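User: I'm writing a tutorial on reading structure tokens. Could you give me a worked example: one chain, its sequence, then its tokens, then a sentence or two explaining what the tokens reveal?
Assistant: Sure. Here is the example chain.
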Amino acid sequence: MPVITCIEDLRVLAKRRVPRMFYDYADSGSYTESTYRANTADFQAIKLRQRVAVNMENRSTRCQMIDQDVAMPVAIAPTGLTGMQHADGEILAARAAQAFGVPFTLSTMSICSIEDVAAATQAPFWFQLYVMRDRDFIERLIARAQAAQCSALMLTLDLQILGQRHKDIKNGLSSPPKPTLKNILNLMTKPRWCLGMAGTRRHGFGNIVGHAKGVGDLSSLSAWTAEQFDPALSWADVEWIKKRWGGKLILKGIMDVEDARLAANSGADALVVSNHGGRQLDGAPSSIQALPAIAEAVGRDIEVWMDGGIRSGQDVLKAWALGARGTLIGRSFLYGLGALGEQGVRSCLEIIRKELDVTMAFTGHTQIQNVDRSILLPGSYPV
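And here are its predicted structure tokens:
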């Protein structure tokens, strides 16, 4: 068993253990992948100011995200097909998040259903919603999240149409996946993954199959999803969903100050500066580049969070310094899940918290709430 010291260690192990089709699904961007790469590279360009001879005792990374106490300003992002990185992946990640004290967000396109995760956990989790043309299905999905006592609804706004991801096409990723010789041979090299999947009944999209009209199995799912994402999504739909939900609402996919102002005016509780992990508009700026202007414009009116490119606790601290009052991790926890299951997700969270704690101390702070832009070297960060 290799020694795990950083998120990259988890990524390398996950790449060995997860079938190529599903590993590539998680670890890729759209078209040239320029935005996908910029999400991490732009974090690395930001430099920190080291301070010395300050009291580093009694440190705390604890804070709140939409009035919920969290161990650090990090939540697990909604990611589709999580249960294909590891058998029962959403349940395992939710348990790890619960034990650690950070929020878990379940994707509409999850393998384990809302009910599966609710039955396996005690802490309330968040549910992420895509707007579909079938509004009756959306109403029932919201009702199911309410019945499961989800404590927040995260509405994703940047998937009205799908950005093309070349790797998915080349790998034959579809519903159900294409059983090509290349894929079958690759599966034969992943016995641990195959054994895990053989031991679970959860292989389809649990929130959709058997719940959406005309979708009784995986063979009918592909056609349904192709026509269901709604390109006509508008702010009126956001208002309709807000009224239907009635609880905490998070809007994900904001990359422009003008849209951020509309999000703040919508009455939502938080927005997420996000380019969908570089999986939608290739050529868009990185999330960390877009963050400061949005935080400056609306940070007093709505909680501003961000995701995209976070691979360390240092990244979390840099995002906080630039105005984010919460962050979401997607690929980082998926690497942990693919590598080591539930323990891998816990390792991911521990790695991030330790890096956040140590880096915060080196920049002269003991409380995350007191950290501001002064910890960053002038000229190294976007303004």
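What the tokens reveal: The mean pLDDT is 95. Residues 331-362 form the longest helix (32 residues).
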